[in-house]
């Protein structure tokens, strides 16, 4: 039988390290309320047939919509040597200095300062974010623009990950 203490003493690979930053971009309260209302309407439709059936379908509908909203919410993660935004990822070595976008900066970035060639992972219910330039000359993407409720934390995690790599 393998010794568990030997496994814990072994250093973890950089990609297996605990994330420096992890955030799931869950919907706002308003989206949750609309989701619950939509799920319950599925049950209300069946009231003329059976009250018990309509209650059961309503409960399943509310739970199902809530689970779908949570599962469809992307995750931002800085872990090891990479930034992961949803299903996309990029090595932190290829990223420049992150720019924290407060509410005003975010408004500019999403309107007159919009970069059509940048990689965007944005959510309408999050009004702050981070813009990180891509330093790779061969990459046509000039930057990553990411919604985040904690832009200072994400920027700090990116700086830390970059400094650990150099």
How does this model look, in words?
The protein is 39% helix and 20% strand. By secondary structure, the chain is α+β, with helices and mostly antiparallel strands. It has two domains: 29-71, no CATH class; 76-165, no CATH class. The strands form two sheets. It has a four-stranded antiparallel beta sheet. The longest helix has 21 residues, at 51-71. The chain starts with a helix and ends with a helix. Mean pLDDT is 88; it is low at 1-15.
Which descriptors would you attach to this protein?
166 residues, alpha+beta, 2 domains, 5 helices, elongated, DUF3093, transmembrane
**Backbone structural class:** alpha+beta
Over all CA atoms, what is the radius of gyration? 21 Å
Give the strand content: 15-25%
The first-to-last residue Cα distance is 39 Å
Strand elements, count:
8
Major β-sheet profile:
4 strands, antiparallel
Order of helices and strands: HEHHEEEEHEEEH
- Strands ordered across the widest β-sheet: 1-2-3-4
Uncertain segments of ≥5 residues (pLDDT<50)?
A: 1-15
Tertiary shape: elongated
Summed up, the domain count is 2
Q: Mean pLDDT, as a whole number?
A: 88
Helix count, DSSP H or I runs of 4 or more residues: 5
Q: What level of helicity do the residues show?
A: 25-40%
Protein name: DUF3093 domain-containing protein
Keywords: Membrane, Transmembrane, Transmembrane helix
InterPro entries: DUF3093 (IPR021443)
Transmembrane segments: 29-49, 55-76
């Amino acid at each position: 039988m393998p010794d568990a203490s030997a496994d814990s003493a072994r250093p973890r690979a950089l990609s297996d390290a605990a994330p420096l930053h992890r955030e799931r971009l869950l919907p706002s309260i308003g989206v949750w309320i609309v989701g619950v209302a939509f799920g319950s309407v599925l049950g209300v439709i069946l009231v003329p047939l059976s009250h018990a059936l309509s209650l059961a379908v309503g409960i399943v509908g509310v739970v199902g919509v809530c689970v779908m909203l949570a599962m469809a919410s992307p995750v931002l993660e800085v872990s090891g040597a990479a930034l992961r935004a949803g299903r996309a990822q990029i090595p932190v070595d290829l990223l420049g200095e992150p720019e924290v976008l407060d509410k005003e900066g975010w408004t500019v970035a999403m309107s007159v300062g919009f970069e059509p060639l940048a990689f965007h992972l944005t959510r309408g219910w999050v009004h702050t974010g981070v813009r990180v330039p891509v330093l790779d000359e061969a990459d046509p993407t000039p930057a990553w623009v990411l919604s985040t409720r904690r832009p200072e934390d994400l920027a700090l995690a990116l700086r830390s990950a970059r400094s650990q790599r150099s």
